[in-house]
Fold:
Amino acid sequence: MYSRAEVQAQAAETTKPFPAVDLRSDTVTRPTPEMRRAMFEAEVGDDVYGEDPTINKLEHRAAEIFARDAAIFVPTGSMGNSIAIKIHTRPGQEIICEERGHIFNYEMATLASFSGCMVRPIYSELGILHWEQVKKKIAGPTYYLAQTGLLSLENTHNMAGGTVYPTEVAEEICDRAHERGIPVHLDGARVFNAATALGKPVAEITKKFDSVMFCLSKGLGAPVGSMLVGSRDFIDQARKYRKALGGGMRQAGILAAAGLIALEKMPARLHEDHANAKFLAAELSKIPGLKIDPATVQTNILIVDISGTNLASNDFTRRLAEKGLLIGSVNNEIVRFVTHMDVDRAACERAIQIVREVV
Ligand code: TLP
Structure:
């Protein structure tokens, strides 16, 4: 999404004397004072020996909240997805996912290099796949066709604009895939945003998936960390692959202490980010040259087509950054705004003002 030079330029903006409004991602949040205190006081041990009490507590709570056998802490969402894909597939198989999916576009082709698989992508305007589309892409039994090893859904769908799977749509895919012996993984980096939008518990909207990855370090505000949840056998295997990838950390309870607060307390405030995103969408849609349908904004992500401004997106984001607003460029015509706990309504109003000035 960003070149190294862009990242450095944007980082330089954040050190300017006036406060930048940073809507690049919900990954940019800083830990709350309560998280920092908990990290300072965390009881720790060696997690590779299974002896870190704070990690054990976090894994136990994650399993409980998702109503699953077990869970495992991983350093990043990308590692969580890579591990899940490795467990579910064999080399030479295909993985079906939506064309703008994170596992396909932003994980450095790890599904190929680590698991030996390739992607059979399906495009869907709002990022939500339906069984009728999926079933056409499942490989037939012909011996020389690469077999479908896994379906992977993304909820919310990041690059489609934080869109949410209706539970019955996701469940139909899981049920039909299972009838064919194909597992279904959920890239639920922002599954708590999905649950908030649907008004349902995460356990309910994820119950039919074989495995779920979710991030503590996005909307939930933890500084580091993601979780994988699934069956006992799946998590036992995940522990081995996490170590293989270099993700066996030692006194990781320092991180889990913040993760516990993220997990227990932060889902309850996500509706504020969604309300701010809807506010931004409504205001941006009134600015000539910007294309966004506020009706499609369900959570905290806005994907905006700026081709009508006649500015390339890098130019657009640079001009905004000069005035103190940081957003992300997805491609030449598309930019992304993401709301999170470190931007309040006043910051969003300032963001709109800056966009108006630039356009
Ligand atoms: N997404 C990041 C970027 O990589 C695009 C962001 O700023 O949104 N699944 C989904 C759906 C994600 O959006 C992300 C991160 C991940 C997985 C990976 O998580 P991390 O960054 O922890 O590896």
Q: What stands out?
A: Residues 270-284 form the longest helix (15 residues). The pocket of TLP is lined by residues 1, 25, 27, 76-78, 81, 102, 106, 154, 158, 187, 189, 215, 217, 226 (CB under 6 Å). The longest strand covers residues 148-154. The mean pLDDT is 96.
